[in-house]
Known about the structure:
Layout: H1 10-15, E1 22-27, H2 35-48, E2 52-56, H3 59-65, E3 70-72, H4 100-112, E4 117-122, H5 124-146, H6 152-157, E5 162-167, H7 183-204, E6 207-212, H8 219-228, E7 232-234, H9 244-257, E8 263-268, H10 281-292, E9 296-300, H11 312-331, E10 339-344, E11 347-352, H12 353-368, H13 372-379, H14 381-394, E12 408-414, H15 421-434, E13 438-442, H16 445-450, E14 454-456, E15 475-476, H17 484-494, E16 498-503, H18 505-516, E17 528-532, H19 548-569, E18 572-578, H20 585-594, E19 598-600, H21 608-621, E20 628-634, H22 643-653, E21 659-664, H23 676-700, E22 701-702, E23 705-706, E24 714-720, E25 723-728, E26 736-737, E27 742-743, H24 752-758
Parallel strand pairs: 1-2, 1-4, 4-5, 5-10, 6-8, 6-9, 7-8, 12-13, 12-15, 12-16, 16-17, 17-24, 18-20, 18-21, 19-20
Antiparallel strand pairs: 2-3, 10-11, 13-14, 22-23, 24-25, 26-27
Amino acid sequence: MAAPQRQDTKKFFENLSGAGKSIGxxxxxxxxxxxxxxxxxxxxxxIYVGAKVYFIHEGYQGMVDGGQxxxxxxxxxxxxxxxxxxxxxxxxxxxxxxxxxGRLRAALNLVQHDITNLCVIGGDGSLTGANLFRDExxxxxxxxxxxxxxxxxxxxxxxxxxxxxxxxxxxxxxxxTDMTIGTDSxxxxxxxxxxxxxxxxxxxxxxxxxxVMGRHCGYLALVSALACGADWVFFPEMPPExxxxxxxxxKLSGNRADKKRLxxxxxxxxxxxxxNKPISADYIKDLVVRRLGFDTRVTILGHVQRGGxxxxxxxxxxxxxxxxxxxxxxxxxxxxxxxxxxxxxxQAVRLPLMECVQMTQEVQKAMDEKKFDEAVxxxxxxFENNLHTYRLLCSRKSDEDLPSSSFNVAVLNVGAPAAGMxxxxxxxVRVGITEGHxxxxxxxxxxxxxxxxxxxxKWGDVGGWTGQGGSLLGTKRTLPxxxxxxxxxxxxxxxxxxxxxxxxFEAYLGLLELSAAREKFSEFSIPMVMVxxxxxxxxxxxxxxxxxxxxxxxxxxxxxxxxxxxxxTKRRVFIIETMGGYCGYLANVGGLAAGADxxxxxxxxxxxxxxxxxxEHLTEKMKTSIQRGLVLRNENSNENFTTxxxxxxxSEEGKGVFDCRKNVLGHTQQGGAPSPFDRNFGTxxxxxxxxxxxxxxxxxxxxxxxxxxxxxxxxxxxxxxRAMVFQPVVQLRDETDFVHRIPKEQxxxxxxxxxxxxxxxxxxxxxxxxxxxxHVTHVRPKEAAI
Length: 786
């Protein structure tokens, strides 16, 4: 981490000074995990740029009541907030704010604290209220002046109220953003319950009906059904057909006949049928018991979904959005509309607040009018893609109804195991069967391929795979070049027409070797696609890899426990070593999620002077009320400054001020059940890859055989900013540092200044890549990120 240097920030302060400005931050409506991370980011970024930041406790009620509810925030006042669920500054429904008299009182309280910038964290109701407040602002000030409560100078100086919103809602029911703060954490709670229920259900051959939140939006129900491989899901945007009772019972009895010992049915609390009649969990239970006689239980998750610590994804999202919100406030002019900071794909965007609210209201209007396809489209392409994948995976047809393609497709895992690989394999197998292909599983990667460890894999063979960690197929790091002749022979023997490789850097190298071997072995002239799956997230051509989110959660949970252990001892600094090879993704982004004080990575060289500066920084920190420190080091960040060296240096230099402990996380980052994000990401990306294979097979099948030797027939499917893109692997060569096994350019390095700023370091911050105000579009590109 760079030493604190003020000269680096010249450009930053010239363009984005908050001096003389006051920012109010409030949370409103239902609470959501991650809200505290957003509050922390707003406070620290605001103070960093020289502004005053105020907590507005108890949401709009606190703004109306004033007094002690509006309190100036300090740097230390948001310490230990990041890992806490809910909202520590409180949230309340406020009837008074809905009246002009209430908003008049709120305006007076803000003026008395010189607050003309508001950051509102809440749902569409809270943000709509903020926008109305902004529209009325000048009129409210005039009324206050008429009443003699403020003077002319106050009216003139505080004539404009700037509003920036962040959506905090576990339902993910706000149009314009792929994910709202709190949704991923709520999915964690649901999947934890489903995984736990799965063991007891299997023991007794039970059917479980789980009710999840989502009165008007089915996102939680839909994605949790995808992530756990549920047998059926009910949610408001997709009412079942009129004969759904018969269909459901037929499917459940068929699954039981296939020796499946448990059935999971997920129902959103707002689920309805095609006549807008509610479908309750109890009704479904009674139906299954009456028609099938299955032992059936109902579990209503309720507010469990709002509770617990925020996931790594929500902490990172909240931190990114909080910093972005402050930038938006600083850049706002008198004519800038109230905006909401959102996430599209992997990119932060700013959208006009009321355009998002209006589209969200259009969804409900479409549903009231029974235009359910329109409602799904308005929800956005993330929701659409989830629904499309669910339909692909759950529309199992009888063998007679399946299209017959006569194509054989091999699927294999290559490289180190990564959580989510099994979900990807399951998805690929089932989508492939649905497309009419015969699917073959290859055990132990390319090495197993060369030995003929290949067998056909059927629909039922991958049941229950989504929640399994590691690689059930088996995976090895062996590259194919030295086994090319044997692999070619196995392709001939099994008549393999296409190949899906799910894995890490070795999978990428393997595809490069196979495409290069096409000149010598015509057997490799088949469509080949790679899906990135590695905890290191070091694959060129993709911002994210399957498995990285699970690893980040493992790091974050461990750091939380380690920090908690220091709460009694005080004055303690922990040095944590993470995996990743030469890629600093886990260390850097894990540091952002865990609230680290310093992170050492290979991509940003550091020397002894910077290590000394970090020690001095922590020494100063120990003089405050925050008497603990957290330092993360990527395993290959520097061959000389090892974890032991840094531990010994900190121990020596911190003598008398703090003591040190070290912890090497090791393979805990690769193990465990996959996170909801990795299950869902793996499922969707593999489904998309299989559909690409089907298209390529049709394009390249000529004169009774498949022949594909063009560059675009050996691709990597990766997320690039906002889009999922198929990229020829040979074209990714120039983007790759093969010596260190990392991409030459890595998007997450732009998050590094955020981590430094939130740890109270002065650093340069390139605002040229910050979000720009865009307009909401009803139809986004089909290739948008999933």
